[in-house]
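PROTEIN DESIGN WORKSHEET
SECTION A - STRUCTURE
LENGTH: 177
TOKENS:
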């Protein structure tokens, strides 16, 4: 079974790859801005799942229209913005934390999304689909299926343990959870 030419194990590897790249990007950017190391995100380890889910959402929304740059921009913008809003609302309502806040920007919705960030997601979608993903897709698809499956499982187990520990930690910080 494949989706847009990729097996479930390959999609899982893309998720982990983009989660790691997102962690590098976000932690590096915020650390430079704050002039001190900042491990960004909900998890303890070097993954920001919002970026992994975002990248996978962008691919699912844009691969069918990859030949049309305008549709890649619009579909990627829509998919990533929807994910960002749902995730931001979920984290705030469930864990009483806000990992990003766009309320200082014009045309925002509850501070979870804004037009500026949405336009960035559209631009990032073009960069991802046209430049980044073809490079990493070559690596992932070159792996034999058993190796891809084993690698996905090897990454999923510590990530699940980290997620469980992070949820427990959030529960201790917010006893109402």
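SECTION B - SEQUENCE
RESIDUE ASSIGNMENT:
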């Amino acid at each position: 079974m494949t989706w847009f030419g990729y097996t479930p194990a390959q999609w899982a590897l893309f998720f982990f790859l983009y989660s790691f790249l997102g962690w590098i990007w976000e932690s590096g950017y915020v650390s430079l801005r704050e002039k001190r190391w900042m491990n960004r995100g909900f998890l303890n380890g070097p993954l920001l799942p919002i970026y992994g889910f975002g990248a996978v959402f962008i691919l699912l929304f844009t691969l069918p229209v990859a030949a049309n740059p305008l549709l890649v921009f619009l579909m990627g913008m829509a998919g990533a913005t929807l994910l960002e809003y749902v995730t931001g609302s979920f984290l705030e309502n469930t864990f009483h934390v806000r990992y990003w806040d766009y309320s200082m920007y014009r045309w925002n919705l509850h501070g979870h999304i804004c037009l500026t960030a949405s336009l960035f997601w559209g631009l990032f979608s073009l960069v991802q689909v046209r430049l980044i993903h073809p490079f990493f897709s070559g690596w992932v698809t070159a792996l034999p299926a058993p190796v891809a499956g084993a690698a996905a499982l090897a990454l999923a187990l510590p990530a699940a343990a980290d997620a469980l520990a992070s949820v427990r930690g959030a529960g201790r910080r917010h006893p109402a959870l």
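SECTION C - NOTES
Residues 145-173 form the longest helix (29 residues).
The chain has a mean pLDDT of 91.
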